[in-house]
Structure formats: C-alpha cells, structure tokens
Amino acid sequence: MLRFVTGNDGKLREARAALDDDVTQFSFDYTEIQSHDLGAIAAHGAREAYREVGEAVMVEDSGLFVDALDGFPGPYSAYVEDTLGIERIWRLTEPEADHAAAFRSLIAYCDGSAFGSAPTIRDGDPPVAIFEGRVDGQIVAPRGEGGFGYDPIFEYDDRTFAERDPDEKNEYSHRGRALDAFAEWYDGEGDADS
C-alpha cells in the first residue's frame, strides 16, 4: 500500500484512479518550503513525510502558471486561491492579450532508497524520484460545476476542467499525467524496490 500525503480528497480520488486503489491517505502537515521550484517543494515534503512514517510516501505539488502574469501564481497557487480567489486571477488575466497558462504537477516519491531509471532529485538525503505532468491551456471566465481549485477558469480543448467529469479530467489533467508517469514506473520498477 502506498501512502499519499494529502488532505485533498479530490487529489486522493485521482491517485486511486491512476494506481488502482492501491493508495491510502496519510495526513501529515509537512513544512512547505517557499520556493519558485515545484520540484524542491515536493522533494522536501516527501523527505519529511518519509522520515515521519518510515515507509514509502508520495507527495504531489502543483501550480497554475499564467504566461501574462510571468508564471504567477505558480507554486503559490493554493495560497493565492485561498486569499484572492480564482475569479481575481481571471480578472487579472482578462485585459491581457495572452491568456495562455499551464497546469504543472510533480509527484515526489521517497522510500529511503536510490532509484534506477526514475528522474531523481539527489540534492538531499534520501533521494526523491520525481514525475511531472503538464497541460497547456488558457485562462477563461469561470465555467462549470465540477472539479476543484482553478478548474473553472482553466480551459483545455474548448472546455474547462470544471466542465468535465472526473474520469475525463483525469485523462487530460496535469496531475493525471504525472500520476500516469509515476504509475508506469511504480508498477514496473519502483514496486519491485519496496
């Protein structure tokens, strides 16, 4: 069983869908370092959670990177959503000519060992395997009733993520892509190591 460090039920559902329900939620409030680098944030969280539980853990960090806002809110997306709200991000972007944006997600996996073929952050101990997912789209006025977070203002292929059912969203989402990359590695190589 893989421990996913999250308090977000939506993220947990997406992880269980990608990893065939072989995921349990682990509630642990790790220190979220302040950094412009999603990889550094996720790796730090995975190391700290691994030290707490002593078993393999997975942490996910993601952000919405808006081109017209020089990548803002990026790694600060959760804080910005909580303090400003998604409609203000739309209003900041609306007058701009460029509405391009990208959702990026990083899965950080730590089990206390080194990794074979997985992309790995080794600037700390223990090493952390990193898997990235990205989807490019644009910022639009809020639409749709589904999803969570920035889903109502992020449009991909003429529909927002909030206008898609969960399975369809997972097929296209940044987190779904990162989870798929992780699942492929974990089912093949990673699972054998733990």
TrEMBL record:
It comes from the Archaea. The keyword Membrane does not apply. Coiled coil: none annotated. It holds the Pfam family Ham1p_like. Keywords: Hydrolase. The keyword Hydrolase applies. GO terms for molecular function: nucleoside triphosphate diphosphatase activity. One of its GO terms (biological process) is nucleoside triphosphate catabolic process. Belongs to the HAM1 NTPase family. This is Non-canonical purine NTP pyrophosphatase, rdgB/HAM1 family. It comes from Halorhabdus utahensis (strain DSM 12940 / JCM 11049 / AX-2).
